Amino acid sequence: MNVLNQYITFLKEYKKLLERGVKDVLNSTVSGNFIWINEVENFIESGICESSLIDIFSPKFKKQPLIFSLQKPYKPNIQIPNRFVEIIEFDEAKNKFESINGDEEELVSFQNSTEGKIEIEKLKKFKKNKETYSKLYRAYNDIKNDSNLEIVLSLGFIQYSKFNNNGNLSKTNQHLFHFPLSLDIDSNNVVKISFSDLENPYTDFFFLNNTPIEKEVLSNIIDRFEERITELGYEYIFENDFKDLIAKSIQKISSNSEFESSIYKPENDHFREDYFKVLFSPAINIKQRKPRFFEKLTDSIIKHNDENEIEAKLFNLLVRNPESSGSNSYTKPNYFKDELFETHKSKAKNLNGDDDFSVFFPLPFNKEQKQIYENYLKNRLTVVTGPPGTGKSHTIVNILCSLLAQGKRVLVTAQTDKALESLLDKIPETFDDLIFTKIQLETNQNRFSLEKSIGNISKILSDNFYLNVETKIEELDNLKAEYVKLKSEIIRALEKEYLKYNLNDTFKDLRAYQIVEKFESKESEEWNWIQDELSNEVISNFEVIKDEILKYKQLVGIEIRYNNVINIDISTILKNLEGFDFKNFLSIQEQYIKQLNYLGLNEYSKEKVLKIQLENITKIANEFSNSDIVLKNIKELENLQKQINNRFTQENITINKSFSNLTENGTKYLLDIETYLSFAENGKAGFFTKLTNSNFKQVSYLEQFTINGKKCNTKTEILQLKSAIENLLTINKNFTLLKQNGFSFSYDDNSNLYEKSLVLNEVLKKIETNKEVVSKIQFNADFINFSEHTQINLFDIDKKKKKAISFKDDIDKLGRINYQLIEKLGVLNNIDSIIEQSSLKNEFSKFLPVEKIEDVQDFELLKTKFLEIGKQLEVEQTFLNLKKYLRDLLPNTFDSLENIPNHYISKENFEYASANRFIKENEFIDLQKCKEELSFINKKIFQVKCDILFDLAKSNFKNKFDSNEIDAFINLLNSYKFDYSQSLKKGIKDNAKFQIAIRKKGSQISKNLSCWVMKFNDVLNSLEHEPEIFDCIIVDEASQLNFNSVLLGYYSENIIIVGDSKQTSPDASMVDSNSFNHIKDKFLKDFLKDDIIQIRPDTSLFDLAKMVAGRSDLSLREHFRCVPEIIEFSKFHFYDNSLRPLKQINSNRLNPKETVFVNDAFTEDKIVYKEIEEIKKFLQRILKDEQYSNKSIGVVSLGLTKHTEKLKDIKEDLANEFGKEKIDKHKLIIEDSPKFQGDERDVMIVSLGVALDFQKLKENQNAKPRAIISDQDEFKKINVALSRAKEQMVLFHSVEHNDLQTNDFRNKILSFFKDEAKPISQLQIDNINIQRYQHNVPEPFDSWFECDIAKALIENGYSYIQPQYNVKEAELFYNHKLGKQVYINFKIDLVVHNNGKMIAIECDGDPFHSLPEDVAYDIERQEFLERVGWKVYRVLYSAFKRSPQEEIQKIIDFIEKNTKKDHKTTIEKPIKLKEEFEDEIEFENEEEISEYVLPKHKSYIDILEDNSETSDTINQLNGTTTNHKHDLFIDMIEEDLEESHQVNLFSYDRKILCYFNLFSDNTYKIQEHSEENCLFSLPIEERFKDGFLLQCYDNGHINKVYVNSILEKRMNYLYSNGKNPNANILYLKLIEEDAIIALKIKRGLETVFKAHKTENISNRELLHLQGYKVVYQKSEKIEYIILPNKIHDDIKRLIFTSFTAEGKSVHNTYYENEWKKIKQFIPSLTE
After folding, report:
1. 618-637, pLDDT tens digit by residue?
2. In angstroms, rounded to a whole number, what is the distance separating the alpha carbons of residues 3 and 1526?
3. To the nearest 5 percent, what fractions of the chain are helix, strand and coil?
4. What is the DSSP string of 27-45?
5. What are 149-162's pLDDT values in tens digits?
6. Rounded CA gap, 542 and 459, in Å?
7. Please, which residues have CB within 8 angstroms of residue 1009's CB and are 6 or more apart in sequence?
8. pTM of the entire structure?
9. What is the DSSP code (8-state) at residue 202?
């Protein structure tokens, strides 16, 4: 066996070794991961669960994906029996009863009592339900955070027992079949479990290894299962075939077997040696995800290697195969430099192969990251040591995009999805379609979905896109040219100090110092009043400007009578007045009134009459007449039509009887006909029947009837007679009905059926006509209005027609006059409206309304008055136009113009002012502009590089396919797309089959994509035996992968392994060391020799790779994640101070380190409960804090497993309080340290998780926690935990140094958090008065300019300065002037410390300082510094020398702007105030008291409710007592007005932010106004914005919602879920802060009262939550009211902590004093 096969066999056996440990799932260490049907039934019985699993394998089992939903269980009403109240208490946090006195006997007595057993049983049931709910809630989060976990429905339980060689009983209890499930939690925190359609069900039969079974039978069962799964997916579980597979087939694996048809949890003590027991026993199972086809994979590799003798140089290098000739050296061409650049260099005049193409990345990079790529080009194996936050993901993305552009196939893998998520998030989105991954990003879950990429992949393959690399290289070349050009401009900007300037006519051809001299020769007062700069072009026409200024000065002082007050256009009014013929208006008005009177109309009836369409009336009247109307109601006509019987024939039949005879005797005739027919059996009555039968003789007269002259003496004629009579009877009934309804018609008495039917049909047509005319008239507005006006009956058509014709001319005349009048009135009304809304209303009041002016003379007077105002306005406007012109021209100078002597207003003075500003600003502005443009060009360069890389990647991807393959692949994509769309349809029959097809085709598609990004286990499930299928594999967080991952070397020629041996290693806890050593020696010793000891379960791929990497091992040192204060611990203790923290945060900077000591906390059952409670409180605070609103948050536990699990429950509680959406927004994770590796958060809370052991303290034993001294795994966990925070890290600890052993590493953690950062010492500069040269610059400065700036800043109070601050090591740059590489330092000239933040000051232009070309590198330094968070200010030497104070002030302004003191959340443990001070109110001034006493803009009801609270509070503050109990309401208003010094109680000074309008259908809007038709309309005043909304329900629940969460909603948008849909709101109240909520509860004849503090009700963000249950007993009626905190002490005996409290009867005299106080607020308390 060669080395490859030996190592693969070793991996295979190691896998079996791992699986050996979990054969018995009933073992207590594993069983907690299962939920059995027994438990499901209990949940259903408790009313918190719905599940179809209880019907599994029965006909009732519903064929649906959702199989289980579980509500959050709420704690029952725990009551201490009265006789135990003084000795027993209930600990809410621990959920257990305890003795108050610590007396164990008292506790036992309670536990054995009948009442105690009831309470304990209630609690036990709740704890069981809560335990399962929390288990699933944690599983939901664990699966999100650790993609190697899964949840499945396990079925087909097999039990087997035997004695092993040692005589011990070995049990096998395991499921054979597993159906993957999806676990979700909805917005109401209901856990929902469904069958997953993303993965196929599978079998796991490892536990049957080494058992006496028929292997072939098992193989057939598995084959059958997989065949049916391929066909049906998870829906196979609903088939009887699957039930039979378990019930009948499995037991055939052994003759010693039996089947038990049970769906419940099996018994653990089942034992019958060498005997198999098979059960259904389904269970929901949370388990580790394993490679499902590992054995098949390893077997296929071994077989392939035997047949082909695979060389596998990389694999052999990694396993250190001594027989392999391969070394790590493996040189690859540099595609970008050797091919891309060489191909296009003719177009690249400014680009350089070494500088611009040696690495070609889409993202910025540093020298270390560049070196990694260069190592890759030289070696098979590249190892990167990446300490926390050193840009590993950033580096991998750069290399990945570079490789994809070269057409390489790349795999990126890690142990977990979480480690890969950060990397995926950094990939430029253009590359998304070439990447296959199943990972969902927290920021964008659908970003990398195959469904999203299908169309784009097809487009890449089908479009004949033009590979436009050449054009983009040209663009890159142009950008490089611009970059170089801008650098040159910076140099020239400094050189301008020595050039001559032509600023204007006054300052022409002068050098800088000459300009200064000229300024000094002129008094500044002559020009310094000029605060605006005019261009030379404007100044050239200065005489015009001067004239305007002088004219303006003359007009200054003119009285502005109208311009400022008139808010109308006078010219418009004048135009309307001038063109208006008022005399004509009066004439039209007179005609109008006359015509109205003539027609007998008023204004109201006129409008109706004018709307009548007389043509419509005439038209209808012409079609019909009064005679067409019999019935006048459509419904009556329709009912009549329904009553008409149309079932008659129209045959031409005549009977020899009259119609009247037949209708009168028709019924008798029909009866006799029936009798006759009974005798005519053969068609005719027999002779003897006629002769002898008396009955026949009675009906024989019928034979005398004739039809159409023929006698009816046969059965046929008799039947014809019968039919004719029946038809005539039907017609007669219709005739009767029609006559009853008023229709008149005539007919003769003959009995011809046809004639009678014709008569009937004619009448029916009349009904239709009647119906038609009524329908046209009955609801016709014209007819109705016309009838109303003329008093003519609505249905008198003939009369209406005549009236309409005679009325038309008069109406038309009225219409014409009315139109003319309206037109004239419109003009006058418009004038009225303008005047009414203008400030001139009072002046023109006697003319209003204008339409009421009675004579022409008054109208002319109105016009004259407007003309006078118009002329005055013209003068005023001239002045104001001049004012505006000059203010626009000279905005900053304008205010001083009227006081400036006229001789100062000269062209020369304006040119002086212009030159002054140029000197001050020109150079600085140019430098800043260049810097901004350089930054933009830099970003553009990387964008173009990214575009080039993607174009190349796209082209190379397409080139992998030949023509036929492209068509086949596009067909596959389209087929996938169709299947996917079908799978989304609800209720589709073949949904499962479509899901299976999607997975199969998705796998086929992924094999053709350029890049896979997936965790290692998924890689193993996706690969086959073919070697070196990838060009390169990149492994992130390789320290978490064990030696199994060496297998990756088989699939690639190159590998880049990124990791850190100082971070967490593979878990080795599940491995038996003896068994491991046995297989290791058996398969590896031959070639590893003595080095075999290095193969250990916790040896990582990273460790193994470093042993063979040689010079290709490189370490990253620049740290970008944490602010320096945070990473300092890891830097010092784990990385020998070699890390270089570069991150700076200058906006909203949180205090980097905080520590919270939890006093009186102990370890109980390996959990520090109090520490967990304090962390929960802290999270509650910061989730409400605006400063943390956009921060991601993590909580990492350094405690034991049980502590960590309990800590995770916080997330469940917070989601219940704040809503899952808010918790997800903050990306809150609560985990142990290894789960955080590869992840980061803005804020990290560290739970030390240890305390003194409570039990050991009681027993006087050593209670100190076990020390961490040399445990490397613990060190690694600490390193990971303390390097995840980007901005803030908060340590919660329950031990101090004296509680730990002296050598415990945790002491260093405590010291780190408690140690204040070493303060920067104040910089002191001596007064040095010597000749200045470059060589005598005082230390530590690099120039005299820096020294001057520092000195000036110290004089202004900024003395904490570090000169020449070294950010990182110097780097090589190519100096174009020297034509070689030179070292450029990364030192900042001056770093100023202020408010805990740092500002970089760069001093440019000192003649003693650096050469001009170095300034260009200063700009590159600045770009780098700003990228990692620095704020940089550049100051020019020339600007400082000319205006030192101004330049220093600019620097100070920049420092202050960027180092503002941030609001900080207090981290210290909250201090519990004494009860008597809890509700004290403090005011700083009298205004605040007034504001509190009398809130403005309140309704009467609000005032009545709040009156006692507000007035009593203030009276107490003032030392007085006032009782409002018997005051009248008006007296109370007056009294409050006097106390508050307010004039108007209902003034609108109180700002209303918006209205909360809640509608009856549970929807709501946030609006600017109240809605009349809503259930509740609540004005949200500004004072409530940090308060709460209480929703009090009729079912005894209270939901307390942050007002802020309501204010964040969009205005006028209709939201759903405005309240709990299962209850009605009785009381909706806004409160500014927590208060007392009182409840009056009616139970039968009894009324009870109780109160609670609202602070005990958790705050929520969602309106539809049911909230806290505060009434547990049955009640008929509940009333709620808010009471002020100030009466707390007076009624504290009625304020209950537990919401389960029943309350006290309002007639209980024991609380008489309390009732008196409460009645002040609830007068009807006892009613």
Report:
1. 888 788 888 888 888 888 88
2. 101
3. 50, 15, 35
4. SHHHHTTEEEHHHHHHHHH
5. 899 999 999 999 88
6. 65
7. 434, 435, 436, 457
8. 0.61
9. E
